[in-house]
From TrEMBL:
It comes from the Bacteria. It catalyses: 2 [molybdopterin-synthase sulfur-carrier protein]-C-terminal-Gly-aminoethanethioate + cyclic pyranopterin phosphate + H2O = molybdopterin + 2 [molybdopterin-synthase sulfur-carrier protein]-C-terminal Gly-Gly + 2 H(+). Pathway: Cofactor biosynthesis; molybdopterin biosynthesis. Heterotetramer of 2 MoaD subunits and 2 MoaE subunits. Also stable as homodimer. The enzyme changes between these two forms during catalysis. InterPro entries: MoaE_sf (IPR036563), Mopterin_biosynth_MoaE (IPR003448). One of its GO terms (molecular function) is molybdopterin synthase activity. This is Molybdopterin synthase catalytic subunit. It is an enzyme of class 2 (transferase). Its EC number is 2.8.1.12. GO terms for biological process: Mo-molybdopterin cofactor biosynthetic process. Belongs to the MoaE family.
Length: 132
């Protein structure tokens, strides 16, 4: 199993399936598994009343940049595994936008890594979000 998985997906994200896959092979040194499940909240961030959200690539190298940042974070915090699945395309309110999972040796590393990757992705420089 890959220690770093980054995917930008058009099919609906299945949280349970991803968690099962993530949890399937754990390192003996794992002390913390931290999951961030980002959803399309309502009312919206930019438009209070919306029916759908369009998630789109803003930078043609979005995947490469997210992977590189994730790989750097993996090494910086000496992690065991990271999954980053980000939805692309048009989704409904309350649908999943992001599944981010970190397997770490300790809580501090897990929390710091999740926050760092999350803030990098949420900056909306690589992937845009439009409430419609």
């Amino acid at each position: 199993m890959n220690k770093i998985t980054v995917k930008l997906v058009e099919e609906k994200i299945n949280i349970q399936s991803l968690y099962d896959e993530f949890y399937n092979e754990l390192n003996d040194s794992t002390g913390t598994i931290l999951i961030h499940h980002g959803k399309a909240k309502y009312p919206g961030k930019h438009k209070k009343d919306y029916s759908k959200i369009r998630l789109f690539i803003k930078d043609e190298q979005a995947y490469e940049k997210i992977y590189e940042f994730t790989e750097h974070t993996f090494q910086e915090y000496n992690l065991n595994k990271i999954f980053v699945y980000h939805q692309i395309g048009t989704i409904d309110k309350n649908d999943t936008i992001l599944f981010l999972a970190v397997e770490a040796k300790d809580r501090d590393s897990a929390f710091n890594a999740v926050r760092k990757i999350l803030e990098f992705i949420k900056a909306e420089t690589l992937i845009g979000l439009e409430e419609i």
